[in-house]
């Protein structure tokens, strides 16, 4: 069984460098997809340069999305329509990768992550599993490699054997739950499965390892940019959150809450043992992204 790692890219070279180095011994092929449009629809330059990653060059297949997806509504500027347009662009970025796995074998493992979601293929639970579909339950870190957001786990990387793959958007939208074999509804569902394995020590989600200015740009252009636009959060606000180890986004807010940037959750400085071995061995290289205060 080969492992094919698939992810999308905007401008996150730090996370790609970490990703490639952690996963290289397990992954046979890296698929990187970049669009000429942000999730908010802004036209952008292409930022990925394969020559920045010479060690992994032979394993990387780089895909470029040239055009906006069908169905974009550019005449309606309401928050709900902005969100629907973003979902179309996100779905396009995932499903665009189907052509890059045509030569994969039926039993090859196709893995889909955002680039800051790094699966733990060294997990004993993953190694022992005979399932065809996997969801990796990951530790959730904010701003720095060693600042843990312990309010919730992150169900990030999702993977399945190629023979089970309906589409990449289907894979990304899998329910974070394994259903018992007797659940009749699983026979007709495309989101509920009995042969799915939740990998408990499934890796790491490192979000917003960026400067305050870079986070502002990211949040202004990512899938939920409509929520961020409506929040009024400034670069100064983001810097205050970083300085005080605070997460201001309410991940537990329901769909009807208009302002989700109203939280004040304190991050925890954690023991290095929770981190990937690669980061600990190269801590000096990434010293700016550890919190020593």
CATH architecture of the domain at 3-205: Alpha-Beta Complex
Strand content bin: 15-25%
Please tell me how large the radius of gyration is. 19 Å
Nearest-integer average pLDDT: 89
Q: Span between N and C termini?
A: 44 Å
The H-and-E topology, N to C, reads as EHEEHEEHEEEHEEHHHEEEH
Computed structural class: alpha/beta
Q: How many strand elements?
A: 13
* Spans of at least 5 consecutive residues with low confidence: 179-189
- The CATH class of the domain at 3-205 is identified as Alpha Beta
Helix run count = 8
Q: Determine the CATH topology of the domain at 3-205.
A: Spore Coat Polysaccharide Biosynthesis Protein SpsA, Chain A
Q: Considering DSSP H and I runs of 4 or more, what fraction of the residues is helical?
A: 10-25%
Q: Can you tell me the overall shape?
A: globular
Reported for the largest beta sheet, the result is: 9 strands, mixed
Topology overview:
Layout: E1 3-9, H1 13-23, E2 29-35, E3 60-65, H2 79-95, E4 109-113, E5 117-119, H3 124-128, E6 133-142, E7 147-148, E8 154-161, H4 168-172, E9 196-199, E10 203-207, H5 212-221, H6 225-231, H7 235-243, E11 246-247, E12 265-266, E13 268-269, H8 277-281
Helix pairs in contact: 2-6, 5-7
């Amino acid at each position: 069984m080969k492992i094919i790692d698939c992810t999308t890219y905007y401008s996150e070279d730090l996370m790609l460098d970490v990703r490639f180095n952690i996963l290289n011994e397990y992954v046979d092929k890296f698929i990187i997809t970049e669009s000429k449009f942000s999730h908010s629809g802004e036209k952008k330059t292409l930022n990925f340069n394969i020559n920045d990653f010479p060690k992994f060059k032979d394993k990387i297949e780089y895909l470029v999305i040239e055009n906006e997806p069908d169905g974009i509504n550019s005449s309606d500027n309401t928050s709900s329509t902005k969100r629907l347009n973003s979902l179309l662009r996100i779905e396009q970025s995932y499903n665009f990768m189907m052509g890059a796995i045509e030569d994969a074998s039926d039993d090859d493992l196709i893995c889909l992550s955002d680039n800051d979601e790094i699966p733990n293929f060294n997990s004993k639970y993953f190694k022992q599993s005979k399932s065809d579909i996997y969801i990796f339950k990951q530790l959730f870190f904010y701003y720095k490699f060693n600042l843990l957001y312990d309010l919730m786990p992150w169900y990030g990387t999702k993977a399945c054997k190629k023979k089970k793959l309906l589409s990449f958007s289907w894979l990304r939208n899998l329910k974070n739950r394994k259903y018992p074999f007797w659940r009749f509804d699983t026979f007709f569902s495309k989101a509920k499965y009995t042969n799915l394995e939740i990998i408990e020590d499934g890796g790491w989600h490192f979000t917003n390892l960026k400067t305050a200015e870079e986070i502002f740009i990211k949040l202004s252009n990512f899938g939920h940019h409509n929520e961020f636009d409506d929040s009024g959060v400034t670069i100064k606000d983001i810097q205050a959150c970083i300085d005080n180890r605070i997460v201001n986004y309410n991940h537990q807010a329901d769909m009807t809450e208009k302002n989700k940037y109203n939280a004040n959750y304190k991050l925890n400085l954690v023991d290095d043992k929770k981190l990937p071995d690669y980061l600990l061995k190269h801590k000096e290289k990434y010293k700016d992204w550890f919190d020593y205060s």
